[in-house]
Design a protein that fits this description.
Pentapeptide-BTB/POZ_domain, mainly beta, Pectate Lyase C-like, 2 domains, elongated, 5peptide_repeat, about 200 residues, single chain, Pentapeptide repeat-containing protein
Length: about 200
């Protein structure tokens, strides 16, 4: 890792297809930066702000976006593999279609996010805020969702198989056609107060 880049502001820069390996940014701001088809490997962003940044078709592997804010950013066909986004917040960003494989997205803020059809597999999402998010036809499988907030979340036809649903109140979400396993059905039945001992 090179020396950290601290408290710098990047505006209207063209980083199309850039290889961002082994860089570290702390308290930086990125506005109107084009990261289309860029690749980050073991890159760290801490307390950074991204505004109107294009992440279209970008690929991120083993990178970290810790306590970052993404405002009006575009993630069309972006992929995150083994990345940490702990404490980051997405605001008015276009997140479709998006693929997330593994990594830690605990405490991530995705309130009212349009997540229809996205794929999230094997991700740690403890205490993530999914209030009012739309996960219709999405895959949210094998995820640690303990303590996550699902108030008003749309889970229509969402594939939730293998995920921790202990924090999910079935009465507080739209769940028509949601896909779960028999074991998860037991957890949800218990959450509704059913006695399954018989």
């Amino acid at each position: 890792m090179t020396e950290p880049i601290r408290a710098e502001t990047f505006r209207r820069e063209d980083w199309y297809g850039e290889d961002l390996a082994d860089r570290e940014y702390v308290d930086c701001e990125f506005f109107d930066v084009d990261l289309t088809e860029a690749v980050s490997r073991q890159v760290s962003f801490t307390n950074c702000t991204f505004g109107n940044v294009r992440f279209n078709a970008s690929r991120h592997v083993d990178s970290a976006f810790l306590r970052c804010t993404f405002r009006r950013c575009n993630f069309f066909e972006a992929e995150f593999t083994g990345c940490k986004l702990v404490g980051s917040v997405f605001d008015q960003s276009d997140l479709r279609p998006l693929t997330v494989l593994g990594g830690d997205w605990s405490f991530v803020g995705l309130p009212r996010a349009d997540l229809r059809g996205i794929t999230i597999r094997g991700v740690r999402m403890r205490e993530a805020d999914l209030t009012g998010a739309n996960l219709t036809d999405a895959v949210l499988a094998d995820a640690d969702l303990s303590g996550a907030v699902f108030r008003g979340t749309q889970l229509t036809r969402c594939d939730l198989r293998g995920s921790d649903l202990s924090a999910l109140d079935p009465t507080a979400v739209e769940r028509t056609g949601a896909i779960i396993t028999a074991e998860q059905a037991v957890v949800l039945a218990q959450a509704l107060g059913f006695d399954l001992t018989g």
